[in-house]
Design goal:
Strand order of the largest sheet of chain A: 2-1-5-3-4
CATH class of the largest domain in chain B: Alpha Beta
Largest interface: A-B, 54 and 58 residues
Order of helices and strands of chain A: EEHEEEHHEHEEHEHEEEH
CATH topology of the largest domain in chain B: Rossmann fold
CATH topology of the largest domain in chain A: N-terminal domain of TfIIb
Helix content of chain A: 10-25%
Number of strands of chain A: 12
Shape of chain A: globular
Number of strands of chain B: 22
Largest sheet of chain A: 5 strands, mixed
Helix content of chain B: 25-40%
Largest sheet of chain B: 6 strands, mixed, barrel
Number of domains of chain A: 2
CATH superfamily of the largest domain in chain A: ADC-like domains
CATH architecture of the largest domain in chain B: 3-Layer(aba) Sandwich
Distance between the termini of chain A: 58 Å
Distance between the termini of chain B: 47 Å
Structural class of chain B: alpha/beta
Oligomer: heterodimer
Chain lengths: ~280, ~550
């Protein structure tokens, strides 16, 4: 059922059950998002997408609030801009954003200045967890968007290897008593890696190449193909640099995968480039 | 999968073997579907089921027939659908009369009341899907097992409707496509019948050649042909039969005895050791263009991403050159050109141009013309009034136990399968840093291990009537008393098929990988054996 709403003074049609964000995007408008993912249940934690809704005292997260008939929404008021800017500045000031181009772009778009909190602003101080051969966890880059927890749990895998532990600034993503991944329930599908917006979770190959200064997206192209394992027919995006596959992802809007893969599909490609060559 | 009321998985463990398909099932469960899993092992899939039926290996037909008997006894069958769309009811009802739930309980180990409950759940569900995998098809009576499941769908009308149906989950990315393209002994591309002159004619015209008027041999018959000396050479493309066929000693003897073996593959697998010529292939999924067809009959494009190494070439180019040397001038310009020939000859693929496949991310056949959206499911014709085409036959099938049963000499039953991280004989999966070690082990029921004096990590000898292997042991409480489990994933160090039985289904040719009688004994305590011993075998021909 179609319902009428008003956004920034403009009348829009939206479908019943849609979120404000979906309605905005369908109308060619937008809001910055970090914890939102089209295939995951919104958890409303980053607050980057807030908008004003007439009659609502607090700003509301557009990614989860559903449209209502006659709803009047403002996306570009001083209050909205200020809230978004501060949220983005706080996040960017507390973590390493070196592999988070999305976050950096949002900060720039809102003329944020994460350095303004001073050099003694509290930062997430976690060591790199490099405890297996497939992916690394660098929680110094983690903005606690919960996407990895959702993908590992009820939104895709039902593996439940990850959860959020602790409260307040001590909150962190955990495997349970901080166990190494190999001792956790992790099945290494890497679906957490795929949804991570800041590079806190990263395939080991990409991490090593970045460390060595060899990771160069300008020399990469993406080829779309189908996974060589099993009969499900998962769509793969092969990221190729210098005639070598360096990373595998899947399109989030593909009917078969919704962006998710299993351990073989995401990581089982290295036989293509045996080292030393055996083919 | 996402819009159904009952997911009935039979001999299928998609959480490990088809993980992304299982995501869709999980969404179905979030939407309210129940999950029932029939599996001798409490697999990761079974652990998430509403109901797990831990069936004795090979009891499937008895269970299916008993479920059908309950459905009729309690009047839960879909009388209208049976009358409208099926045939053979009397013979079928006659065939299942002896399958009381109590009889099935003795065969399957599943309580009679549970069988009744499942029958009611399946018959009463507004929509229900039965999926099966190799737990049904790797038996000497595999086709009968499939018929038994089809019968259930036909007597309840759970077929030919959105959210209801039958789904064999394919194990490889192009099992479906290979069959669709005629890589089975009795079909030509698009499913045309080799033995029907009328269906053969368009192919003969297109190819300018007379085609053999009779079905060829499936792989098990080929091995039998080698045994009789009727087959003297083999051209093997993209397969590792030395390691993947049941009864490895026999396959080795037969392949070794051939005059000439050509292997065309992407890597030097074990079969390469006995090949006279190896033709290096490029990888179909990333070093060439082409198509595959997945389990839902969806034809999908694969695109070249990287150059193949060294002298490796596209299979199409190799075959075309070979045809040239044999005096046939094939002049396909590449994969798309071959595909367009498929479209000319196969009505169900006609509407699928490369451009459409790229644009849509894949189309499900039948897709007979360029405006057709593809078909989400089959057999809707059975519901049309009047019915279109032939009625669905109810197939009377009888349960038989696996060829080998545990006995005093071989008191355990070995069943084989896959583990999440690995794949078949490992040609692809042995090359990556998998989270589990790239080695094989024997899983046994903890109480059986105790009785044998075996502890986790000990080295054991596992023996069948065909061979024996030394293998490290793990205790596994997802099994059942008397049941043990291994995979074929690591043939470099563990040629598991030394043990398996080459009894095969006469209709499909698939061997009974799921049931081998074995004996197990302790050889050395944990920590006291050397790694080199693992996988060593001794010839054993006790019988």
């Amino acid at each position: 059922m179609s319902i009428g709403i008003e956004v920034d003074g403009r009348a829009l049609e939206a479908d019943e059950g849609m979120t404000i964000l979906q309605a905005l995007r369908r109308a060619g408008m937008d809001a910055p998002t970090l914890c939102y993912h089209p295939n995951l249940t919104p958890v409303n934690v980053c607050r980057a997408c807030v908008v004003e809704v007439e009659g609502s005292r607090a700003l509301v997260p557009s990614c989860s609030r559903r449209v209502e008939p006659g709803m009047r929404i403002r996306t570009d008021t001083g209050r909205v801009r200020r809230a978004r800017k501060v949220v983005l500045e706080l996040l960017a000031s507390s973590v390493d954003t070196s592999t988070a181009p999305e976050l950096a772009a949002h900060v720039a778009a809102y003329q944020g200045d994460p350095a303004r909190f001073g050099s003694d602003a509290v930062r997430v101080d976690e060591p790199l967890r490099d405890d297996n051969d497939l992916y690394v966890r660098d929680y110094a880059k983690c903005i606690l968007c919960y996407k990895c927890v959702e993908a590992c749990g009820e939104d895709a895998q039902y593996t439940f290897a990850l959860a959020v532990a602790g409260r307040g600034f001590a909150a962190r993503i955990e495997t349970g008593a901080d166990a190494p991944l190999l001792e956790s329930r992790c099945v290494f599908c890497g679906n957490c890696v795929a949804v991570c917006p800041t590079g806190a979770l990263m395939p080991l190959i990409e991490h090593r190449m970045r460390q060595a200064g060899e990771w160069d997206p300008s020399r990469q192209h993406v080829a779309e193909t189908i996974c060589p394992y099993c009969g499900v027919g998962c769509a793969l995006e092969l990221h190729v640099q210098d005639n070598r596959i360096v990373k595998v992802t899947s399109p989030a809007d593909h009917d078969v995968t919704r962006g998710h893969l299993c351990v073989k599909g995401r990581f089982g490609f290295t036989y293509v480039h045996p080292d030393p060559p055996s083919r | 999968m996402e819009h159904t009321d009952l997911l009935f998985l039979w001999g299928s463990n998609p959480r490990e073997t088809h993980p992304i398909m299982f995501h869709h099932m999980l969404r179905g469960m979030r939407n309210g579907a129940r999950l029932v899993v029939v599996d001798p092992r409490r697999t990761p899939t079974a652990q998430l089921a509403h109901l797990h039926l831990p069936i004795r290996v090979g009891g499937d037909i008895a269970l299916a027939n008993a479920i059908a008997r309950v459905i009729f006894e309690e009047g839960l069958e879909h009388r209208e659908f049976i009358a409208h769309a099926t045939e053979g009811l009397d013979a079928y009802r006659e065939a299942i009369t002896t399958y009381t739930p109590e009889f099935a309980e003795r065969v399957t180990g599943i309580e009679a009341d549970t069988i009744r409950r499942v029958a009611r759940m399946y018959a009463a569900a507004p929509r229900a899907i039965i999926c099966w995998t190799l737990g049904i098809t790797e038996h000497h009576n595999a086709t009968d097992g499939v018929y038994a499941l089809c019968n259930l769908a036909n007597v309840t009308g759970h077929v030919g409707r959105y959210g209801s149906g039958l789904d064999p989950l394919r194990g490889q990315n192009n099992v479906q496509g290979g069959g669709d393209m005629g890589a089975i002994p009795n079909r030509l591309p698009g499913g045309a019948d080799v033995e029907d002159a009328g269906q053969r004619a368009p192919f003969e015209a297109a190819w300018g050649a007379a085609l053999p008027p009779r079905s060829g041999r499936h792989q098990s018959l080929m091995f039998e042909g080698m045994e009789r000396g009727e087959i003297r050479a083999a051209y093997i493309i993209g397969e590792n039969p030395l390691m993947s066929e049941a009864n490895l000693h026999r396959s080795r003897e037969l392949l070794d005895g051939l005059d000439f073996v050509v292997l065309q593959d992407v890597a030097l697998n074990q079969t390469a050791e006995i090949a006279d010529v190896v033709l290096p292939s490029a990888l179909s999924w990333c070093e060439c263009d082409g198509t595959v067809t997945n389990s839902e009959r969806r034809v999908q494009l694969m695109r070249k991403a990287v150059d193949p190494p060294g002298e490796a070439r596209d299979d199409i180019a190799i075959l075309q050159d070979l045809a040239g040397r044999m005096g046939h001038k094939w002049d396909y310009t590449g994969a798309e050109d071959v595909w367009n020939e498929v479209r000319r000859l196969s009505a169900r693929h006609r509407g699928m141009s490369y451009a459409r496949l790229a644009e849509t991310g894949g189309l499900q056949w039948p897709c007979p013309d360029p405006g057709h959206p593809g078909s989400k499911f089959l057999h809707e014709r059975l519901w049309r009034r009047p019915i279109e085409g032939p009625r669905a036959p109810l197939m009377p099938v009888q349960w038989e136990p696996p060829v080998e049963q545990p006995d005093d000499a071989y008191p355990f039953l070995l069943t084989t399968g896959r583990r999440l991280e690995f794949y078949n004989t490992g040609t692809q999966s042995r090359g990556y840093a998998a989270p589990r070690p790239q080695t094989e082990y024997l899983c046994i029921w903890p109480a059986d291990a105790r009785r044998l004096g075996i502890e986790a990590g000990d080295l054991a000898r596992i023996r069948s009537r065909r061979g024996s292997l030394l293998v490290p042991v793990r205790l596994d409480d997802t099994l059942a008393p008397g049941l043990c489990f291994m995979t074929l994933h690591h043939p470099d160090t563990m040629p598991t098929n030394v043990l398996t039985i080459d009894a095969w289904d006469p209709k499909s040719g698939t061997a009974e990988f799921k049931a081998t009688a074995v004996a197990i004994e302790r050889v050395a305590a944990r920590g006291s054996w050397r790694e080199e011993l693992v996988g060593q075998e001794e010839m054993s021909r006790a019988d």
